[in-house]
């Protein structure tokens, strides 16, 4: 579980599928009102407080983004804190979080490479399996390769994920964030373009 602060009132939590499995939670459970998910959320908020001093009292907006191979991204935004002079019902205080949960599913495969050489190696191996697409971004001193597997057969998609995992790290950064804060280096067919311009 990785937690980072996006602003004073907003944090991002990246959960791997291992994080979920360890707690006996399936991906589909994340949008169900079940005790295990509440426990996980409480654990996330405790860790956010310990690591970042993020106080999760009051209303929270929670966005959950499911990524195909990497896990889930949970973005928590803190709402306006209740006026201190307002009476607080003791029972209400027991309800730790008021959550408004929205869910989005992203099928985009997203991997970060710290070294351009590793990106090239991954591209050449992936190209050997017939994968040519992808968009390449430069973001926070890393190369981010994103591939939309929409028309890809599942076996090919799993093979691609295995290749990218060998050379890079799964990343939770979304296309929207990359478009806004990163630099798009190759808009489409990134793997083919890299293989054409840089030989092994």
Automatic annotation (TrEMBL):
Q: Looking at the record's lineage, which domain of life comes first?
A: Bacteria
Read off the InterPro entries from this record. Answer: MecA_C_sf, Neg-reg_MecA
Please give the family membership noted in the entry: Belongs to the MecA family.
Q: What is this protein called?
A: Genetic competence negative regulator
Q: Which organism is it from?
A: Paenibacillus flagellatus
